[in-house]
Amino acid sequence: MVKRVTFQTMMSSLRRSLERVPEHRTGRNIQYQIADAGLGAFSVFYTQSPSFLAHQRHMQQRQGRNNARSLFEVDAIPCDEQIRNLLDPVDPSYLRSPFWEIYERLEAGDYLDDYRGIGGTRLCSLDGTQYFASQKIHCPNCTVHVREGQTYYSPKFDN
Length: 159
Description:
Layout lengths: L6 H13 L14 H14 L4 H12 L3 H4 L9 H8 L8 H13 L19 H4 L11 E5 L2 E5 L5
Antiparallel strand pairs: 1-2
Helix pairs in contact: 1-2, 1-6, 2-5
């Protein structure tokens, strides 16, 4: 019998991967853990808020709790700038293993059967590549698109 895939199982896989990211900071300013920054950045996909910190602070004031702690187990919430400072130097390869681990669990549990098209090919929505693009924020690993004279940077999706 295949083990059920839960949100916590997926988060545990992501956290384990982020905890393996080598420390790249040289100073003594290590108030925030790289894993917390990574989980904070990941949570933006669930909150649909451009400022993770602002959204979590607002939720904490309104409801007395926040998703950073309850869903993503983030101990200390770094600000948006600090998240970028902590994650920009990190090689994207550190996030490949949790992606494939989660994918294999979903595949083994038959969760992905409904997402097959003609000839058994996998259906994949690409709308997110347009939605998560910036004209300002980028790194050497970004995909660059020029549309109507405007340059857009987005995450590079490769394996």
